[in-house]
Amino acid sequence: MYKVSEIKELIRALDRSNLSEVTVKGEGKEQITLKKNSGVQLVDAAEPVTASAPEAQPAAKTVTAAPPVKEETPVKEEASAPKDAAKEDVEHILSPMVGTFYSSPSPDSKPYVEVGAEVKEGEVVCIVEAMKLMNELEAEMNGKIVDILVENGELVEYGQPLFALQSK
Prior knowledge:
By secondary structure, the chain is mainly beta. The protein has one helix and 13 strands; from the N terminus they run αβββββββββββββ. A hairpin with a 2-residue loop joins strand 9 and strand 10 (133-138). Residues 38-67 and 73-86 have low confidence and may be disordered. Residues 90-166 form the Lipoyl-binding domain.
């Protein structure tokens, strides 16, 4: 049987996507189907149960993995010397899903990256756990980690910035 927290997480994920329906099959004959604006149906060997789902909001943009967002640092008009131009281009590594952020592969391990670390495109930077599945998140570009925006074990939302990355 599915836990209520797992069903709620599925509903949130569906709500944020442009999918209209998703079916998850468990062990044996367990199966849950979620449909936007039409309800939730839980099938467990014998009888189906239906409950109304929350009103879905249209997704602004849905992608397989959340792309980095380019952010221009505002330039202050001061009489002082100009700041390093390379620090003006900061991009964020975003969470591609709702889940729990983990900075290392296990509690005993070192974090994948720390502030100041140089990362290469395709290098694993963290794990986002969703529905008991560990999803490794990879850097989408070369750069330097200038800030880690979430704490280990923190719940993250779809599209939430996880790292600030200075592009090379």
